[in-house]
Amino acid sequence: MKDTYKSITSASEEVLYKDRNSKFYGYAFPVKTEEEINTHLEELRSRHHKASHWCYAWQLGKEEFKYRANDDGEPSNSAGMPIYGQIQSFEVTNILIVVVRYFGGVKLGVGGLINAYKTAAQMALENSKMITRSIDRVFVVKFNYPEMNTVMRMIKENNLNVIEQKLELDCRVFLSVRKADADEILKKFNSIYKIDINELDI
């Protein structure tokens, strides 16, 4: 069972690819929402307000993916899809790649554009620090105070990650568990009398 995904840790430094006087500036950003994507796009349009095109592709999700590729006025599939192809090639997600073009007066043709946008996207990704993260499921364990030692022993024995805990008379502990281990952990907690465990949909 695949329970990891790859992303980048922080925004890449600006990269530059040139072809026949046209300049292609490449950027990669880690993102989690479309709102974040729009913020980065607006910022780059403002910074490069004299550019001719702001082409991009993004992908969101850990297991089920949502993506978009935008040619921004370039010939169909000559910009957005070559950028998205690099996202697929590097197998990264939760990412936005933008390539900003300044037209240099010489037309590159569709083949030249595909190569330029692909190369600028590749350079931005190569200039980024990759990280592999686990896909986790989140559980809440509910129990009464007398069961505290049993629950804490189980957490320690299985090296579980506690996100949050509310230890009063009516106790709750929130756990983050790797997807591959989740069913086994669920079974272990369910086997203990007076302890209730449920998965949270987050």
UniProtKB/TrEMBL annotation:
Top-level taxon in the UniProt lineage: Bacteria
Q: What is this protein called?
A: YigZ family protein
Q: Which residues form the Impact N-terminal domain?
A: 20-125
Family matches, as SUPFAM superfamilies: Ribosomal protein S5 domain 2-like (SSF54211)
Pfam families assigned to the protein according to its UniProt record, in alphabetical order:
Impact_N
Give the similarity note: Belongs to the IMPACT family.
Species annotation: Autumnicola musiva
